[in-house]
Automatic annotation (TrEMBL):
InterPro entries (alphabetical): Ysc84_actin-binding
Signal peptide: 1-20
Source organism: Palleronia aestuarii
PROSITE patterns in the cross-refs: PROKAR_LIPOPROTEIN (PS51257)
Keyword list, A-Z: Signal
Domain Ysc84 actin-binding: 98-180
Annotated protein name in UniProt: Las17-binding protein actin regulator
């Protein structure tokens, strides 16, 4: 008779949650599904937060992750798929993955967009074997009026991240430590 520790049971349950969360509705239905979700996400973003239109107009590229699913129970992870747009057209498709350990329980879904504000930042992103969001990403955040605000520091950053549309039980979403890899949908 095999006796399982509480840690082993929790780890197994968490792994099951994370794997179930990875099927975030984009699955493997191809580029057309991702493109439709990207278009819908950008429409929502620009309508809800019109200040992001200025970011779009100044950026050299935009990575749109329409749906990222995050789940955790002590150990957690997130997964999503999206497209990189240059001049408004999708040129590559990417997955976003993140793993975390710590005091966490729950699940949430959200969208995020990375605005590449310089050619160098876009070049570095496209030519890395797995780009990881780190300290170089600045965030535009919601103020109390529901508008997105950027500071002078943020406006001068090579990459600006916007996280929005959060729904779920985990408070807050951060892109730090998220790894982006090019995929073929």
């Amino acid at each position: 008779m095999k006796i399982h520790s509480r840690r082993a049971v929790l780890t197994g349950a968490t792994a099951s949650l994370v794997l179930a969360a990875c099927d975030n509705g984009v699955s493997s239905r191809g580029a057309s599904t991702i493109d439709a979700r990207v278009e819908s996400t950008l429409s929502y973003l620009y309508t809800t937060y019109p200040d992001t239109i200025a970011l779009r107009d100044k950026s050299t590229g935009i990575l749109v992750m329409p749906l990222v699913t995050e789940a955790g129970l002590g150990v957690g992870g997130s997964y999503g798929r999206g497209a990189l747009l240059v001049d408004g057209l999708p040129i590559d498709y990417y997955s976003a993955t993140q793993a975390s350990v710590g005091l966490q329980i729950g699940a949430q879904q959200y969208a995020h967009v990375l605005f590449f504000m310089t050619d160098d930042a876009l070049y570095d992103f496209r030519n890395s074997p797995g780009w990881v969001a780190g300290a170089d990403v600045q965030y535009a955040v919601n103020d109390r009026g529901g508008n997105l605000s950027t500071t002078t520091t943020t406006a001068l950053s090579p990459v600006i991240g916007v996280v929005f549309g959060q729904a779920g039980l985990i408070a807050g979403a951060s892109l730090r430590g998220t790894k982006y890899n090019r995929i073929i949908p």
